Amino acid sequence: MAYQVPRMDELQSRAWLALVWSAELLPAALDAQLQSDSGMTHFEFMVLSTLQQAEKSSLRTKDLAVAVNATMPRLSRVVGKLAERGLLERAGGAADARVVNVRLTKAGRRELVRAVPAHIHLVKELVIDRLSAAELHALVEILEPLVGRLDPQSRVGFAAAQRAAP
Fold first, then answer.
1. pTM (2 decimals)?
2. Rounded to a whole number, what is the distance in angstroms from the first to the last CA of the chain?
3. Could you tell me which residue ranges the HTH marR-type domain spans (predicted)?
């Protein structure tokens, strides 16, 4: 007999555990592929991707942290590593020395472009190609409202990055 979450019926338990384990296992699989093929973590990939989508490929660190759903200490460590590798640059804000802007470099854009094909191939292999068009529509209809509930101000993601001013 499969584990059943207390205070949930069988269907609720199966749905909840499938969601939780997907959320746990998918990032690990994406990390492994990106580390192997591109020498970066999935989080680093998301930082670079978010900067690429931002106006002028630049964001204030606090806006970048929000867009990638990271704490400032975590983002600061990753930005430092990516800057050491020449994939992004940090610069002080013109009007306020406390503001730090992060900008994607040409090398960062190049590494991101190189990483995308294998990453998308894995995403398709693990998720997209396993579902029919109807299941993909259902997944969107199921998950978008959950994301909206968890992020009612639409603070995370590419749209948030594009709205943020450098």
1. 0.89
2. 54
3. 12-148
What is the three-state SS of the chain?
A: CCCCCCCCCHHHHHHHHHHHHHHHHHHHHHHHHHHHHHCCCHHHHHHHHHHHHCHHHEEEHHHHHHHCCCCHHHHHHHHHHHHHCCCEEEEECCCCCCCEEEEECHHHHHHHHHHHHHHHHHHHHHCHHHCCHHHHHHHHHHHHHHHHHHCCCCCCCHHHHHHCCC
Which residue in 90, 89, 45, 91 sits closest to 68, CA to CA? 45
pLDDT tens digit string along 4-40? 999 999 999 999 999 999 999 999 999 999 999 999 9
Boundaries of every domain in the chain: 24-163
